[in-house]
Amino acid sequence: MDRKDKWRQKTSLESIFFNNVISDNAIKNCNRLFWLKNEHEETARIWNIEKELGFTYMSDDEGVVKSIQAMEISFVRKESFSKGG
User: Which of 5, 17, 47, 82 measures 20 to 30 Å from 75, CA to CA?
Assistant: First the structure.
């Protein structure tokens, strides 16, 4: 394999990696936007699934939904902070 072939191979591998990074970021942004637009509905849906699984909580459904939202916000902040973002 000569120098040109090695350069082409390296460039090809870099472009594959770069395209995957863009794709990952696009997915993360899409998920974040979805959550922002549907936060309450998604949290209520999660709570309904948890109730079906047998989870209980000493509050009304709205109180539980607010607690789940607070946990999600806390988790996102910790994850963002741990990644330096």
Answer: 17
Beta-carbon contacts of residue 41 (< 8 Å; ≥ 6 apart): none
Q: Report pLDDT digits (tens) over 20-75.
A: 666 777 788 888 888 778 888 888 998 899 999 998 888 888 888 888 888 877 87
Integer CA distances (angstroms), 21 to 10, 12, 25, 29, 48, in order? 17, 14, 6, 12, 35
Burial 17-29 (b: 16+ CB within 10 A, else e): eeeeeeeeeeeee
The DSSP letter of residue 57 is -
Q: Are 65 and 40 contacting, i.e. CB atoms less than 8 angstroms apart?
A: yes
> Residue 61 belongs to what domain range?
3-82
Question: Number of structural domains, the chain?
Answer: 1
Task: Tell me the whole-structure pTM to 2 decimals.
Answer: 0.47
